């Protein structure tokens, strides 16, 4: 597989074309951002940690029958992925109240949510990823009703798989976001699953072991990511 020109550079990842029109190289950089890019830093080892963490999680989801775009690791910081036609709608599941939910509704952080909540957000940095509903997504052509139904079903299946996985490591999967795209007409999980895009707490102490350590200036960001990975079986260099 020949890596070719850079197609896109996001806040923490870069995407490259390959000699296969249906495959891309996803490069995880050490860059870290918060508050829609208002705060940016480079954290040593982050690209490697998130790349390996993501590949491990995507592998577990594939084993559970959930289609993902990841096809394999190419290096410590790169993986080969299917080229998806991305749907600009983020799916968010919350198992425990935290973050934006606490701010919006004034509920207590740490409150268990039974059943878990499901929310949709438009992927648009300039608008700060506003919350939307299914009607808006269909009306504006961001997704069809059928696509949204499949995305919701897959998001809840991911929740079932990963809640058990993290619980076995003494961790709470507080919340997370997923992005999907189309590959040969099939809804496929894209982007990444790492502590950058979810909240993970120690089940006993409620210590935050995710990107909130960066957002809140708690320090030890990459050490926390690696601790989470080790607890669930991710191998780092």
UniProtKB/TrEMBL annotation:
It catalyses: 5-amino-1-(5-phospho-D-ribosyl)imidazole-4-carboxylate + L-aspartate + ATP = (2S)-2-[5-amino-1-(5-phospho-beta-D-ribosyl)imidazole-4-carboxamido]succinate + ADP + phosphate + 2 H(+). Keywords: ATP-binding, Ligase, Nucleotide-binding, Purine biosynthesis. Its EC number is 6.3.2.6. Pathway: Purine metabolism; IMP biosynthesis via de novo pathway; 5-amino-1-(5-phospho-D-ribosyl)imidazole-4-carboxamide from 5-amino-1-(5-phospho-D-ribosyl)imidazole-4-carboxylate: step 1/2. GO terms for cellular component: cytosol. It comes from Halomonas huangheensis. Pfam families: SAICAR_synt. This is Phosphoribosylaminoimidazole-succinocarboxamide synthase. Belongs to the SAICAR synthetase family. Residues 7-231 form the SAICAR synthetase/ADE2 N-terminal domain. GO terms for molecular function: ATP binding; phosphoribosylaminoimidazolesuccinocarboxamide synthase activity. One of its GO terms (biological process) is 'de novo' IMP biosynthetic process.
